[in-house]
Amino acid sequence: WAPDSDHAVFRRPNNRKWFAVLMTIPRAKLGLSGDGSIEVVNLKCGPILAASLRSEAGFFPAWHMNKNHWITAALDGKKRKEVLDAVAATVILENFMAYRKNHKDEQ
Q1: Coil, strand, or helix at residue 90?
Q2: Rounded average pLDDT over 81-107
């Protein structure tokens, strides 16, 4: 993506794979009514967590990602902050643990 675009990508340091993307997308991409855009975060997570979150308000099948391992969360203030905080913390922790597992010998 262009350096001046409206996004932020979070990557694992060891392999540069994405685990989260903050971006602004058209509301229609999520099947939402109304014109304009919405800020979202795409989060990589396990298939069980992704499937269970899709039933929560404000969570959607991932936009532009593998829908089994990614979810999209609307950042519009309509969902409970505690839920999004817990999901984000889980995703960050999963990626941190995977990084540490792959770099045990360096510690």
Answers
A1: helix
A2: 67
